[in-house]
């Protein structure tokens, strides 16, 4: 087991607006505020959604990418780190230096008229319909 004690730093509550590119807005904010480590909680809705589901097996990542063009409600929990190299979940991406990585596990509704359907996975992109995002910085 590995343990690192941290303290609560700044707390930010963001209200994302309709049409915002989720990662475009959040990544820019994380860079502007130099948030190096944090826990993230969000709830709201997306107009368009990109998500990943899957698992890592003996052959590597077995990934299912999904795209939804209808609005969906979601809740998500995750963290912010600055890895030296892009995580494999980002696909074919290269970095010259560490970049913020907002890693979110989510549950998302099945869309209008399909409230009994729920999907779980990683949020990989989306256009916001309306959303609140809480960032709890760890120092």
How would you describe what is shown here?
With 139 residues, this protein is mainly beta. It has a single domain (8-54, 65-86, 98-138), classed as Hypothetical protein, similar to alpha- acetolactate decarboxylase, domain 2 (60s Ribosomal Protein L30, Chain: A, 2-Layer Sandwich). The chain has one helix at residues 22-33; strands at 8-16, 38-57, 60-68, 72-81, 101-109, 118-138. Strands 1, 2, 3, 4, 5 and 6 form a six-stranded antiparallel β-sheet that branches. A hairpin with a 2-residue loop joins strand 2 (38-57) and strand 3 (60-68). The longest helix has 12 residues, at 22-33. The two termini are 20 Å apart. 21% of the residues are buried.
Structural class: mainly beta
Using only C-alpha atoms, the radius of gyration works out to 15 Å
Q: How many separate domains make up the residues? A: 1
Average pLDDT for all residues: 92
SSE diagram, text form:
Elements: E1 8-16, H1 22-33, E2 38-57, E3 60-68, E4 72-81, E5 101-109, E6 118-138
Antiparallel strand pairs: 1-6, 2-3, 2-4, 2-6, 4-5, 5-6
Features:
139 residues; mainly beta; 60s Ribosomal Protein L30, Chain: A; 6-stranded antiparallel sheet; 1 helix; 6 strands; 9% helix
């Amino acid at each position: 087991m590995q343990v690192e004690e941290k303290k609560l730093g700044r707390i930010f509550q963001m209200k994302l607006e309709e049409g915002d590119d989720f990662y475009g807005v959040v990544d820019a904010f994380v860079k502007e505020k130099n948030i190096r480590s944090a826990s993230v909680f969000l709830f709201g809705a997306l107009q368009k959604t990109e998500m990943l589901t899957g698992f890592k097996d003996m052959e590597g990542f077995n990934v299912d990418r999904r795209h939804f063009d209808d609005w969906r409600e979601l809740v998500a929990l995750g963290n912010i780190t600055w890895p030296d190299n892009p995580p494999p979940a980002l696909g074919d991406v290269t970095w010259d230096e560490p970049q913020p990585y907002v890693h979110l596990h989510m549950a998302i509704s099945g869309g209008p008229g399909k409230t009994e359907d729920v999907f779980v996975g990683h949020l990989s992109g989306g256009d916001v319909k309306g959303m609140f995002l809480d960032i709890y910085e760890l120092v």
